[in-house]
Amino acid sequence: MENEKQEFTITVYTENQVGLLNRIAIIFSRRKINVESLNTSPSEVPGIHRFTIVVVESREVVLKIVRQIEKQVEVLKAYYNTNDEIVWQELALYKVLSDEITEKVKVERLLREFGARAVAIRKDFIVFETTGHREETNKLMEALAPFGLVEFVRSARVAIIKESAGFHEKLKDFEKSEPGLELVENEYLGQRGNVFTM
Amino acid sequence: METKQLTGSQAVLEACIAEGVDTIFGYPGGAIMPIYDALYDYTDKLKHVLVRHEQGGIHAGQGYARTSGKVGVVFATSGPGATNLVTGLADAMIDSTPLVCITGQVFAHLLGTDAFQETDIINITMPVTKWNYQITDATEIPHILAKAFYLAKTGRPGPVLIDITKNAQFQSFDYQGYTVCNHVRSYRPKPIIRQEYIDEAIQLINEAKKPLVIYGQGVILGNAENEFKQFIEKSGMPAAWTILALSAMPTDHPQNMGMLGMHGNYGPNVLTNECDVLIAVGMRFDDRVTGRLDKYAKQAKIIHLDIDPSEIDKNLLAHVGVWGDCKETLPLLTKGIEQKDRSEWLQVFAGYAKEEYEQCIHDEMHPTAEALSMAEVIHAVNEITKGDAVMVTDVGQHQMVTCRYAKFNQTRSNVTSGGLGTMGFGLPAAIGAKFGAPERTVIAVIGDGGIQMTLQEFGTIMQTGVEVKVMILNNEFLGMVRQWQQLFMDKRYSFVDIESPDYVMLANSYKIAAAKVSKREDLVDAVTKMLDHKGSYVLEVMVGKENNVFPMVPQGCSVSEIRLK
């Protein structure tokens, strides 16, 4: 059914401007829609930012949201895709106590079975990393839970749209023909000069 | 090119001059003092209207923008000055009114420290501005203000707020001159017109037996009144308007079928559910227009023309969405459509109009009760102005009655708060409307509730001498809420009984001439005297306490379930 709720990944290309995150976020919060995951980072084209937002909603609602996002002055383009139209990953980090884990499970088994990498091995703790879909990263979390998982964190989803070659070229040409303005941040912050105020 | 040193404040005023601004509505305060200091030397080029409250300032800016078609400019200080703009921003956002609001802000190095009169106005106003931006360095001022004016007035217009920290106002920099902005790379003011949708729309219109055109403020905002008229006249189709489109076409145009929506006319509401093609031009299917959406125009094919792509399919799924500026799309439609005689279909409307007149309008215009009705007051105004005045309304019963009964000959003559329904809008908006159209008579019709929300602006009238005719229709109630309580809440009149001051004395204390009228035989004379008076005038008109506005589409009902009484 078209109007059943499902996961949609919204990809937004924007200018790199202070406050834009909030402008996009309030489009969701105004309608009381929960954002499952949100990632923002520079895109492959310098000067252009990319948001990856995951929501569980109906296609109809997502279409309207995407149009509202595109309406924002500093948004270049927004897409929405179902899971079969994208390739996506999430990254997860797991911190476990070394004593606990080396005594009770074989680290080697964990690494093999869950495709995990040890990114830090210290006398007192070990940090593992996996990437994958949520179900996959969850599995290792569950496996480690009985052995004193001290800390767990998962990144937002990052996604590549399978059919996106055309837009990438357009974006590159666009930035080349008309470079974006430089980001202006507050350079005065924290510099309490001897300025007269009233 | 030789550069000169300007302060940020001077650059703000240079930008206003370069953008053709002649009037600024504002109120000074600590964080905007450098701009006001600079303004002291610019009074030969820029008129500044000192309002009595920032909300009054922004509503005046809105009134100015509506009658003049230009961008309204408003100055306010940081903190409370800025937050007092929020209602006006929300009103301008929902009614697509072009504004540039400039707020002072604390020094950049104090941002985030809870400094005196610091408020995060950028984040507060984000949902109610088309765009907003904080300037912390004076060198940004020229191009950011150019962008602000460009964004405010192009595409679907809207309010823009620029927050300027005090250091940037003081800061001197090499001024390179002002370049008007006509392009922002991430912003497309108008969608590209797609010929296939134009063709589909033409075909639907040509095949239609009972088409109905409904039009909104887009026609006025797009300066497309003539294009719209040609479209209507060639096609012979009946046309009905939303409240904000009022005055885009002359009231007595033979194809004007009246107002849509909750208190609109009988015919256009009922026949929305009988037409075969519904052509919506520059309107957004607000719930006050559509009534119950799942029973709205279900039988019709919908053609929706809008400059804002997010409006198409937002409330009502369109069979044909014609994206684009209606000034450009309407002529394309007009070219393709056939000239048709639709007098038979127009006769159906005439039948409904007759029924509405007999069952509702006649009694409103010629009441048997002793108390005056709002409709006869507006009728008395029409008789004298002949439809040439700008009518400004507040929000409530008087607004619905004025919009239903006032006559208009020219566009940009109706100023009202449509989408937001902001009580208190009327008086300041009328002041702004007069500055925007100084050669025209401006009449503000305001209820006894709304006037008490912003009556401090009588001070602005006193000090500027701006000529505004204020009619207070006093029913000693918050009438619209009372009407709903009567009809839907068992007459439980919960806090709608409102007392008024002596408006005549009040106006006089502001040195404004005033009178009060309550008898039918005195009405015409009183209105005549008000309009003949040189200068502002306040006329309090006592009207029936428990009169209701009909017709009415009760909430949750379909437009075809409109009640005549």
Into which percent range does the helicity of residues of chain A fall? 25-40%
Strand content of chain A: 25-35%
Largest sheet of chain A: 5 strands, antiparallel
Shape of chain B: globular
The overall strand count of chain B is 20
Q: Which structural category do the helix and sheet elements of chain B fall into?
A: alpha/beta
Q: Which parts of chain B are unreliable, with pLDDT below 50 for 5 consecutive residues or more?
A: none
- How far from one another are the termini of chain B? 71 Å
Total beta strand runs of chain A: 9
Give the number of helices of chain A.
Answer: 6
Identify the quaternary structure here: heterodimer
Under CATH, the homologous superfamily of the largest domain in chain B reads: Thiamin diphosphate (ThDP)-binding fold, Pyr/PP domains
User: Which architecture of the largest domain in chain B does the CATH hierarchy give at level 2?
Assistant: 3-Layer(aba) Sandwich
Spatial separation of the terminal alpha carbons of chain A = 61 Å
Number of helical segments with 4 or more residues of chain B? 22
> Cα-atom Rg of chain B, whole angstroms?
24 Å
Helix content of chain B: 25-40%
Report the uncertain regions of chain A. none
Query: In the residues of chain B, how many domains can be counted?
Result: 3
Question: TL;DR?
Answer:
Chain A has 198 residues and is α+β, with helices and mostly antiparallel strands.
